[in-house]
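request received
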Amino acid sequence: MTLALNIFTIVAVSAGSFFFMAGTIGLLRFPDTMTRLHALTKVDNLGLGLIVFGLLPQAEGLLAVLKLLCVWIFVQLSGAIVSQLVAQLARGDGQQR
Amino acid sequence: MNSIALFAYCGAAMVGLGLFGLITKPQVLRKILAFNVLGTGVFLLFGVIARRGAAAGLPSDPVPQALVITGIVVAFSATTMAVVLLLRLYAETGEATLDSDDPPNAGTDGGR
Amino acid sequence: MTPPFILEIAFVILILAIAVGTLVARTAFTAVLLFMIYGLLIAIAWVRLSAVDVALTEAAIGGGLTGMLLLGAVARLRESEGSGEEPGLPTLLAAGTFCVLVSAALGTLVLSRPEVAPSLAPMVMDNLAQSALGNPVAAVLFVFRAFDTLLEKVVLLLALIGVWSLAPDRAWGGVPGLRLYAEPSSILVFLAQLLPPIGIMIGIYMFWTGASYPGGAFQGGTVLAAMWLLVMIARLQPVPAISLRRIRLLLVVGPVIFVAIGLLGFVVADAFLAYPANYAKPLIITAEATLTLSIGVTLGLLVAGPPDRMLQP
Amino acid sequence: MANFLFGAAGFVLAMVAVGLLCVLRGPSDTDRMLSAQLIGSGGVAVLLLVATVTGTPSIVDVALMLALLAVFAAVAFLRDASSSQIKPPNATDRV
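response:
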């Protein structure tokens, strides 16, 4: 059982790290702000999400699990809203030029 | 060389960097940033002292930790004060630097 | 060399690189942004130094409030960017040598240790039971060195008075010149409605958990301040005039109650800020709760800045 | 397991270092801010990993704090960007 959980952790955390890499590369390589925004949201949602998901089996107690989930939901919510605002700003920028 | 020594060197280097910026940067905002870098360096050194004082089952001496927390608060107060002073200086003179003794009017055309 | 240690070396190099970046960045905006990231990494460094209480404070102040303060300043100073001359090469060299010497001296001094490092940890642990708190750092802050903590709050208030005193005469007692969002934005309003309830809960949690685990009044107060500023920036709530009686009351209620409890110490215990044996915990919690509120309001107003206009009807 | 999680933390830190290049490169201030947000998420991930490796649940609180205040910093940036966009810089009488 422990082995299965450990394997799950390793797989999920690796996948999360992969999305961190993907997001960072996206940020470096994508041509404009809108596409970079897309790269960022991948990191926030999938990268951090998978890492949190992978760490859940290692957490001790219900409170620890809840707190981990809280961090993720939090980053999710705020990330989504901030991306909206940035997109609005970036689009406004384009129209003015 | 262990991880405590590593952070001690890090703190010492930060103090040096902050001091250098504080002396050489003409813009006041950069001086404020440099001052904060210097401050965190000092705090980190104190944190190293706390870590070395690990005893009685604690990983780190709580007294320096408490002092550092107080220090961070006071440093923040000082930073706020400095920023507001800078903004007032800018509103009064139109300058945000301390580099010249010229009257402010002479500096506005950007050269001499 | 263990893998964690190699990681720490890389981490320290990263911190120093960012510190250099903060100083040499071309635009003030980049410098401030790097400084905020620097604060984030310093918080992680505190975690590595086993000082989670300090890490919480640094995370709250370094990344959040200082960042907002400095970004606001950059936006106002935008036109003056690039002005100012770097000093000449001789000065740079002299300053550089001096700073390297200072760093080397500090590094050597901190590590040239007495064989047994001095520590007050055993004393704290011996007396922890009397303080009725489980978190040794909170015990130092509110019991063993409570006077320091009281004075720290006074420093915050003095800084606020200093900030206010820089207001132009015509705006004295008016509304702080906090920069707001340019026009009401429904998305931002949504964020400002969604986040504060959660944030206030986290703030209260920080202060409550501070009795036994890392956390405390200051960390909690910082979160409250951040939430308050968010609501004001989104234009959900107006920025209050500083002459309002209830604002002044909120500012001083924490320190006043703390002083009152301290004076009570003369009567029921034997010294200023001494707590009577069986009521230590309730008294400390009361002081901390009101302090959290006062700190929140003080920090919020510090970031909001000096008043720059009178209240419009 | 501990070594793997440390490795993951190191990997994320490396990504943070690359993100730093993005901050320096820009090109616009908005892009720099996006990179800073990415680094913020990276910091949160590192803290969560370290909390699990060292078995210190209170480190998760630090991550929570960072997550909360990262939003706040982003709003501060957006506020300044939005107001400089709506009002021309010389709208308020300065200097």
